[in-house]
Amino acid sequence: MSLLPLLLALSLLAPQSGADKLEQARARMADGKADEAERLLSEMLAAGEGDAHDVRLLLADAQLAAGAPDRALETLEPIAKDDDPAALRKMGEAFRANGERVAAGGGRRAKDDAEFQFGQAVTFLVRAGKAGDAAADAQAGFVELYNLGDADAARERADKLLKRDAQDGEALLLRGCAHVSASWAASQAGDEKMAKAEREKAVADLTAADAALGGKRPEPVFQLAWLHEQSGEAEKAVEAAAAWSDRLPHKDFSRLYQLARRYAGERQLAAASSALVAMVQRDAALLTEWVKAEEDVTAAAVSLSWGLGPLVDSNRGRVAKDVLAALCAAGPKDPNLWNDYGLMARDANAFDESLRAYDQALVLRPDDANLMNDTAVILHYYLHRDYDRAQELYEKAIEIADELLDKRDKLTPEALALAEKAKKEATDNMRNLAQGVYEWGR
Predict the structure, then answer these.
(1) How many domains does the chain have?
(2) For residue 69, what are the contacts with CB-CB under 8 A and spacing of at least 6?
C-alpha cells in the first residue's frame, strides 16, 4: 500500500509555523476580517509564536482596522524604540487614530484629550523620521495641518524636508496641501488676491508631488480638482477628479458627479459633458445610483442631460445614448428625456433599446401623437415586427392629431405645428405600411 495518503494526512495534522499564521492573518485582513486577524495574532502573541516584533506590528494593523487604536497603542508600546522606525511610525498612526476617535466624542474635555493624542502622534512620527523614515516626518506635518489646524507648522516642516531633498514627493504633497488650506482661509476672509496666489503655489507643489510620487496616488489629484474648480478651470477640474477616482481602490464618483451637477446647472456644458462621459465610461451603473440617490430624481436627470449638447454637436451620438441610458435607468418621470433617449438609441442602431425608451415616454405622456408615430416607426422600419401594433399607433396618432386640428384656433403656433407634423408623418407612414414599404426613406 502506498504511503502517500498517510503522509498527506500527517502533513495536514502538522502544526502551523508562526510564518504560516502571519500569512493567514494577513489574508484575513485582506478579506476585511480584521477582528479574526486580531484574535489569531493575539493568540500567537500570548503563546510566544512567531517573531514577537512582526506579530505586534501586524496585530496593531488589525486593531487599527478594527477601530481600536487604544488597543494598538498598548500592543506597540513595548517595541516603540528609537531604532525601530516601523514601530515608531505605527505608534504615531495609532495616536492619530485614537485622537480622532476621542474627538468624535465631542465636548471640551474630548477636544483637549484629542489634542494631546495628536501631539503624541507628531512626536512619534518625528522620531520615526529621525530613525530613517523620511515619509513619517511628512506625516507628522499632515497631523499638524489637518488635526491640529496649524498650517504654518506644516509648511515649515515641508520646507525643512525639501531643503534636504527638493524632489521629496511626500514633502511636496504636504506643502501643497498647506497652500490649499491657506488659500481657503484667505478666500473665507475675502482676500481673493492672497487666495489666488496660494492656489497657484498649491497647484505647482501638487503637480510636482504627483510626478515625484509616480502619478499613482489619489491625494494630489483630489486637491488639484478642487483648486482647478476654484480657479474656474472646469475641464482641468474634471480631468483631475477622474484621475482621483481611477487611483482609489474602489471607484468613487462623488467629485465627478458634483462637478457634473454644478457645470450642468451653470450651463458650462463642455465640462458637464466631460464629467458625464468620464463616469459612463468607467461605470454607468454607478452614475445611475448617484442619480437615484437624489431627492428629486427627475430634476437631477433633466439637469444633467443638458451636458449632452456637446456630444450631439460633435457627432458622438453613441456616447450620448449611453449617458441617457444611465440617466433614464434611474427612473425619471420626464417624457422628453425618454423621447431623447429613444431618438439617440435609434440613431445608434440600438433599436430594441429605442423601442423601450419610446414606450416609457408614452407611459408618461400617453396622448402624444408624435410619440405614437415615433414608436410605430421603430417597429415598422427598424425592427420589422409587430406591424399590427404599428398600424394601431399610426391610426391613433392621426386620430389625436385630427382632434387637435379641429380646434386649431385654440392652439399655440408650436402646438399647431406639432399636430400637423404628427398628422402628415403618421399618414405617410401608414400608407407605406399598407403598400409593404418597410425601409426607412423609401
Answers:
(1) 4
(2) 63, 94, 95, 97, 98, 101
